[in-house]
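Progress note, sequence design subtask.
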């Protein structure tokens, strides 16, 4: 990491030309086909925290092996990164990492977007949002989160879990989902026209 430390020092204490050189080098490393080169680029980007590197970092969100480090480096840019991170939420390939970066950013707008992702159709997005909020709360215990929204998201996850476990129609069992008031409701499960783990299990066991 000596190279990254040297780049950080040059970016912090050099002139505009020096900073531009660091950004150009980091950008080239982030686009390098070699994983070790990209790893160095991510470290330099995290230390430099330069907005000019954000587009290259967002592209790394799509690589599951590097998305977490890319999200950390993007969050290090600070509030100026917020618009690009919010825009990345519209891409299924970038969404989870963008959510993690927004959670680490910790601004009111960023956290509101993360809370909103708790109810997203994409399970990976919901998982990323849960993790991001947990980290945000651990980093800043006094951060205020909308309790009702979080509770509703938890109840929705429980309902999904019950529906998946029951797979009532396909498995031929008389099972139902548990409502929050303690009563049971029929499982909204239609294995013939739905996709997902429960549907696959149901069809496999027929």
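Output:
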């Amino acid at each position: 990491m000596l190279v990254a430390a040297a780049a950080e020092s040059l970016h912090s204490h050099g002139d505009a030309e020096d900073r531009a050189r660091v950004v150009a080098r980091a950008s080239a490393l982030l686009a390098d086909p070699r994983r070790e080169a990209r790893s160095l680029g991510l470290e330099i980007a995290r230390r430099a925290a330069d907005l000019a590197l954000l587009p290259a970092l967002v592209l790394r969100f799509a690589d599951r092996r590097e998305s977490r480090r890319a999200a950390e480096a993007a969050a290090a840019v600070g509030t100026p990164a917020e618009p690009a991170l919010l825009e990345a939420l519209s891409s299924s390939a970038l969404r989870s990492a963008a959510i993690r970066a927004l959670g680490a950013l910790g601004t009111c707008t960023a956290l509101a977007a993360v809370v909103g992702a708790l109810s997203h159709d994409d399970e990976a997005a919901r998982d990323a949002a849960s993790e991001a909020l947990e980290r945000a709360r651990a980093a800043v215990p006094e951060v205020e989160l909308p309790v009702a929204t979080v509770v509703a998201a938890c109840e929705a996850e429980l309902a999904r879990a019950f529906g998946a476990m029951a797979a009532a129609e396909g498995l031929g069992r008389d099972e139902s989902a548990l409502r929050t008031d303690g009563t049971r409701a029929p499982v909204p499960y239609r294995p013939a026209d739905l996709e997902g783990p429960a549907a696959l299990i149901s069809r496999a066991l027929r």
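The chain has twelve helices and two strands. Work on this subtask will continue into the next period as scheduled.
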